[in-house]
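Give me C-alpha cells for this 274-residue protein.
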Amino acid sequence: MPHLAVPRVPVAQRKESAEPEKPSIITKDLTAYFGERAAIRDVSMTIPQEAVTAIIGPSGCGKSTLLRCLNRMHETVPNARVDGDVEILGTSIYGEGTNATAVRRHVGMVFQRPTPFPTMSIKANVAAGLRVDSKQRLANQAEDEIVEEALHRAGLWEEVKDRLNESATAISGGQQQRVCIARALATRPRILLLDEPTASLDPLSTQKVEELVYHLRETMTVVIVTHNMQQAARVSDRTAFLLAGELIEFAPTNQLFTAPKDPRTEAYITGRFG
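Here you go.
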C-alpha cells in the first residue's frame, strides 16, 4: 500500500529545500459528514507553506471538523465520511491507496486538552510517534537526540531536561501541552494542526504556546483553530472565517480583521454574534 509521497526533511535543511511557490494545503470542494449531516460544505482554500493559518468562527461552525479532515482524523469517527479532496504539497491524501497513518506522520495534530500518555515518562511520550512505524528502529542515541530537539523546539527542554524519566502527568498543564506539541514535532512533520491548544491553559502557558506557534512558521506550516480572535491576530499570517459549515472569508489576517469583505465576517469580529 503506497504511502503519502511527502519526504521527511531534516530540520536544518528545510528552509533551503522548501518550495514557497507550491501551496502547503489545498482543499477542493471539501464536505465532511457525520451520518447524513454535513458539518462543513464545499470548503475550497489554499494554505501557504511556512506560515500560520488561523481558523475562527462560533462554536459548532465546523472549525475542528475542517482541521481533522486535513490529516484524515475525521474518518476515525463512526459514520463519518468526506467528499471532495485535500492535497498536501501536491499529493491527494484521500487518493486511492494512500495510507492514513503515513498522512498523520507528516501532518501532526495537537488537541484542545493536553493528552500525554499517563503511564509513560516525558521522554517516552515525546518518542512515542517514532515507535509507531515498525520499520523505523532508532538507536537509543538517535532517539535521545530527536527527543531533545523536539523539546527544544517546543520551548520545554530547559524546564524538563532533568525530569525526562518522570511521568508526563507530574508536570503542569501548560508543560503537558508542550510535551504533546514536542511529541507531534518529533516525527518532523511538514504540517502541524492545533485544535484550540490553549483553551485549558493559564495566561502564562498560553503566552508560551503562542510564542512557540509564532516561531514554528520558520520551518513548517501551522494551522490553528481558535475561539480567541485576539490570539488569531497575534499569531497568524492568514485567517479563515467559518460560519455554519461554510467558508465565508479567507484572507491575510490584518486585512480580515481591519477591512473584511463580507458583512458576516464584520458582524462576527465586532461581536454582534458568536
